[in-house]
Amino acid sequence: MSRCVTLGMFSLTLAVGVDAASIDRWSASTEREFLLGTFEGTAIDRDGRIELAPQTTHLWGPESGIVWDIVPGRKGSVFVALSGPGQVLFIDADGAATAWYQADDESLITALAPDGKGGVYAGISPQGRILHLRAPGETTVVAETGTTFVWALKTGPGGTLWAGTGVPGQIQRYRKDGGPETLFETGDDPVRSLVVGTDGVVIAGTGGRGRVIRLERGSPFVLFDASEAEIVALAREADGTVWALAAGGVKQPSSRPPATQGPVTRVRVTAEAPPRNGNSDNDSEGDKKPESERPAASFRASGGGALYRISRTAIDTVWTTSDAIPFDMTLDGDGTILIATGDKGQVWRVDPSGKAARMIPIASNQASAITSNAAGQIFVAGTSDARVERFERDRRQHGRYLSLPIEAGTQARWGRVSWDADVSEGSSISAAVRVGNTTEPDETWSAWVDLADDGQIDSSALPASRLIQVRLKLADGESAGPRVSSLQVSYEPRNRAPEIESLTVEPPGVVIVPVPAQSTARLGPLVADDPVTRSATSGAPRGRARSPVRRGWEAGARTFSWAADDPDDDRLTYRLDIRAEGDLYWFPLAAGLTGTYYSWDARSTPDGKYRVRLTASDQTDNPSGDALTRAEISPLFVVDNSRPALTEWSVERSGAGREVAFTAVDPGGSVAAVEVAMDAGDWLPLFPEDGVADSDVERYRLILPTEGQSELPASMRVRITDAAGNLGGALKQVDAD
Fold first, then answer.
1. Minimum mean pLDDT range among 113-117, 216-220, 248-252, 625-629
2. Of 13, 105, 363, 615, which has the maximum CB count within 10 A?
3. Other C-beta atoms within 10 Å of 595: how many?
4. Domain 2-53+398-493 -> CATH class
């Protein structure tokens, strides 16, 4: 009796109180998701569950060459059509291989058919020859078909031999008591597959236009015109239902030029035959054959295909694939269809309703041929490295499934591994995990850690890691083996520290304040109106605020702005500390900040050189002791709260006027601007003798002409502004001594 269970077999102690939202989960519950993992003695059933695979027996290989066809022999043996080198191999039930035929040139063995007496017929291409092999070395020529390729061979009632050919495409019949007959010609559309019923009805599949043709009493009739280019395999049930396996490609146009002008049929396999006698694959000019005599070295490049059921009343699409390359099929005794594909040696089992199960793949890139015998044994041939595997009826007793490496993105606390499964009496599922920090598991990963029955393991058994892989072990019971329908892993990514991208000390006097979204405040000076204020705010737009903050200017203000991010998208808070240059102690300046700026009234701070330290913390989203911080120290900046002063004032006569000279000084800072106003006149800028106001001492000189003046100014107002926005000045008489 089967029961559905949900098992949690792996748990690591998590910190108490961790926010549940920080837990991530990986899961696999569909065929596509399971296929990202690795199957070792396991397979996917028709409902998309992991199950134990059939037992398999390795019979022969790997060897070089391409397996074109495989047919059953007596007592569990098989015949294999091998090309590169061209051979017909007899492989007995124990895997011993004997060459029944060895080509002495570069011929391809492209088709086989058992003769019913322990021998086999073989199609030789591109010579278009059919051989009868009765035993090793006992070979007779049955026919020279007059064609280039022999793509299909089948025996029918009375020992009649049927052949499907290409260039030209024909259906030929060879009777024991009569000569060869060409019953139907398809011209440039090669006959790629055949099936012959006990009633003598022949069904043919073509390899250029994808047609299924019935030949009954010499009369052809197209049963089905597929959208795919090739009908690569056919099967027929006792009730007359025809199964057609089609492979994708570009269909030939529906024209029929003379047979002798037909193009070459390109049937490809992705593995190429090795050169003979150590020679290159390239033919020399003298050895090159006409294009019509040189078949391609591989089956088919494009993927996609379908399985069709053709009954007397309907044509149904039972199974489709968009990427796998169908090569061959056979009917199993339980009514299912087994399909060999070029999808990493994958074999599919499809039931009449269309449910498909992936059986265990063979160790070849392509499962190029498949057949079954009367005992129910399934034989699969592989290409890329030629081999033959036998699938038995019984399930394996044990198998494993390995998940893909599960990526947490950062080092993680691995939480719980659980699965949903049907586990029959006596069956079992156990699990193990391993962890690492490389995308693909290698020798640097941890050893496998088996999971205890209580689901708990010591977290110290696993090193810090960002990837985990789960291994399930399935063991068979008395009836149906276990079937896993879903697999889940929960984990908590370890917290990562914030990142501070920049920390900026704004110019002295600049302030940043929040502005309500609907504010109509002008973006200009707040209070002050002097050259430094106007310069600092000259780029600020006026009118409605366009951002949630506003930049302005205030005397004595210092502002710090920054950009920071958190790789885990945690909310950040900030702290600012300040330290005078040369001191060791950091004094708190502000804490609990959530914005990315801070404006500070520095007028109460002694003049000097300072640095601030910004600390970003993700504690808001990591309250359980896992919070991390990142700190950044600013460049050196100056706090200057002292007013600039005027010194060394002098007024002297100079020619036709008066020369006024003075010095502006700003200890610990720098003079930024000087303006003068004569009597009650407007303020006018005055430039220093060196042309640039940028140091703590600047010398100024001004000539007041007397010529043409009815009245000379009696006084001068001087205004000095330093880089920090501090103002100083003086009122002076300009009468010369």
1. 248-252
2. 615
3. 12
4. mainly beta
